[in-house]
Amino acid sequence: MGLSCSKEISEKFGFSEKMKETNKKIYLCNAEGEEMSSSSMRGIPDATPVLSPETQAIVVESWKIIRTDIERVGVVMFMGLLEDPGIRGTFLSFQDKTAEELKASTALRSHVLRVMGAVEKVVARLDSQEKVIALLHDLGHRHMAYNARPEFLDLVGPQFNNAIQPALGDKWTPEVEQAWADLFRYITHLMKETMVM
How far is CA 5 from CA 32, 45, 192, in A? Predict the structure, then answer.
């Protein structure tokens, strides 16, 4: 992938300096390394991303470690996502809560476990593309009913990678980071197919 993504695009989406540098090529560019405008991110690319067998194997192996601390990883991910006022605005029950109240919130933990459960289902079904497609189309359709904006999905992958890095410790490698980025690009694409059509 190229590194032609502009600083302006990554700043627009509120990534931290570290995230901008490490993730802009992964999340804010298409497969050819070209910048993705917010309108193209809202839509879906022409072709569904393909997960190589190597990518799938990395995801499956690293998930075994991640799932041992699934709730903490999910809370870290969501705390990062909820820093964005637009995302926080879609969660009515989270709007007026402080960071400390959110961390202690049973509603947040319940949502986190549902999201992480969906990730676990995707990982468990990677060998059956039909089942993954059905699962993610249903999930995209449900998110449309919640008035979730499709472009917000593009922010989940970087936050997920930030959350899993400490959990993986010395198992965290550029290949693991890329595998999870690829998986979230795939997840996002399939969810958007039912959100923007």
Answer: 11, 16, 22
How does pLDDT run across 99-154, given as a tens digit for each residue?
A: 899 988 999 999 999 999 999 999 999 999 999 999 999 999 888 777 778 888 88
pTM: predicted TM-score of the whole model, two decimal places: 0.75
Sequence-distant (6+) residues with CB within 8 A of 151 are 38, 41, 42
Write b or e for each residue in 76-91: b if 16 or more Cβ atoms lie within 10 A of its Cβ, otherwise e: bbbbbbbebeebbebb
Residue 191 has which token pair? 């969810």
Instruction: Indicate the length of the chain as a whole number.
Output: 197
Enumerate helices (H) and strands (E) in the chain, giving the number of each: 11, 0
The single-letter DSSP state of residue 84 is S
Contact 171, 65 (CB under 8 A): yes
Alpha carbons 17 and 20: distance in angstroms, whole number: 5
